Each structure stands twice: as structure tokens, then as C-alpha cells.
């Protein structure tokens, strides 16, 4: 059965559905945050969440094969281990992912306002993602982040900073960088973005001309 986004979110307001997913929610709440093969599609974490999951956070979660597509998350995903997690069309709004290990995850078509200091992302799909700033400007992005073998096709980096970060063997086809702070960023591999992909910012020395 194919659900519309509204249906996926609305089910979290249904007591019967919450009863079905109660075991997984209690596992996360109790700090035993090893979760495998679970459908959490459409979950809302943050101020707008339903009472049953209002205080939930993903601090130090260990997620393997978890579906978080269409989710809306405000809050901590710090020190998390995320392997094969689906964030398709997710909305991460003022979240933090400090020191998170993110492997084989799909963020395609998501909107991301997040601080990722010291996070590691490997073999992740960021196609058509929008990395956005908060209301104050360059307070989101991340420092010392490592992206390895990640796909940024058609992604947009808008007013974010990734200072002292590293991109290794990443795909930057049609990626746009707008008014970002990339001081100290290093790039390894043959897939370097073209200088024309950078707008209203200093063009890194590793961009092709």
C-alpha cells in the first residue's frame, strides 16, 4: 500500500498506531537505543510532536535498516550510529549530529538545517538535498566533517559552513554552493566541482576552472 505524506504523519496521532509501535518508542525512551528493521516513517520529533513522543530524541541511537523517510526532526542525533537509514524527503530542522557515524544512508530530496561537527558520512546519498542556514546565517553546517564516497548530485549548499571539513571521492554533478564558508576544506579524488558552481563566496582553490 502506498501512503501519502500526510497519511504517514497523521498516523502518529492515532492511538492504535502508537500502540503498535509502542515497543520501539519505549526502547528509545529508556536509553536502550539499538533499533533494527523498524518503520518510523513520518515520525515528528520536536515541539510539534504528539505527546507520546514529544520528549523523544535520537541521542546515541544505534539504527540499522530504519525507515525515517518523510520524518521531521528537531533535536539531538548526536553520537549516533546510523547504518542504512532512509531519510528520503526528511526535514531536519535545527538538529545536531555531533560526532555521528552515518553509513549507507539516503538523504535524497531532504531539507537539512543541521550542525554536523565531527560527523563522518560514508557512502551516503545526498542527491537533491538542500543544506540550509538558520535565521542568523552561517551557524549551521559543520566543522571537521568527513564525507567519503557521497553523492551530492543536484544538491544545494545555501549559506552554510563546512570549515576544516573533507570531501573524499564525492560526486558534485550540478551541485550549487551559495554564500558558504568553506575555509580549510580539503577535497580528495577526481570529482572536483567547477568554479561556476560557486556563487557569492570565495571559490576554493580545488575547484576546476
TrEMBL record:
One Pfam family here: Pentapeptide_4
Origin superkingdom: Bacteria
InterPro entries xrefs: 5peptide_repeat (IPR001646), Pentapeptide-BTB/POZ_domain (IPR051082)
Protein name: Pentapeptide repeat protein
Amino acid at each position: 500500500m502506498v501512503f501519502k505524506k500526510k497519511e504517514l504523519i497523521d498516523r502518529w496521532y492515532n492511538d492504535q498506531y502508537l500502540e503498535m509501535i509502542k515497543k520501539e518508542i519505549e526502547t528509545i525512551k529508556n536509553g536502550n537505543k539499538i533499533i533494527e528493521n523498524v518503520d518510523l516513517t513520518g515520525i515528528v520529533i520536536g515541539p510539534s510532536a504528539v505527546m507520546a513522543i514529544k520528549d523523544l530524541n535520537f541521542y546515541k541511537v544505534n539504527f540499522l535498516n530504519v525507515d525515517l523517510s518523510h520524518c521531521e526532526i528537531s533535536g539531538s542525533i548526536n553520537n549516533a550510529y546510523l547504518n542504512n537509514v532512509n531519510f528520503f524527503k526528511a526535514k531536519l530542522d535545527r538538529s545536531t549530529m555531533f560526532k555521528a557515524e552515518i553509513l549507507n544512508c539516503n538523504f535524497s530530496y531532504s531539507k537539512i538545517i543541521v550542525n554536523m561537527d565531527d560527523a563522518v558520512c560514508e557512502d551516503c546519498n545526498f542527491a537533491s538535498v538542500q543544506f540550509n542556514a538558520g535565521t542568523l546565517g552561517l551557524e549551521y553546517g559543520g566543522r571537521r566533517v568527513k564525507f567519503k564516497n557521497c553523492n551530492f548530485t543536484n544538491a544545494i549548499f545555501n549559506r552554510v559552513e563546512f570549515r576544516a571539513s573533507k570531501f573524499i571521492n564525492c560526486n558534485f554533478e550540478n551541485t550549487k554552493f551559495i554564500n558558504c564558508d568553506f575555509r580549510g576544506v580539503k577535497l580528495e579524488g577526481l570529482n572536483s566541482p567547477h568554479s561556476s558552481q560557486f556563487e557569492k563566496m570565495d571559490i576554493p582553490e580545488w575547484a576546476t576552472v
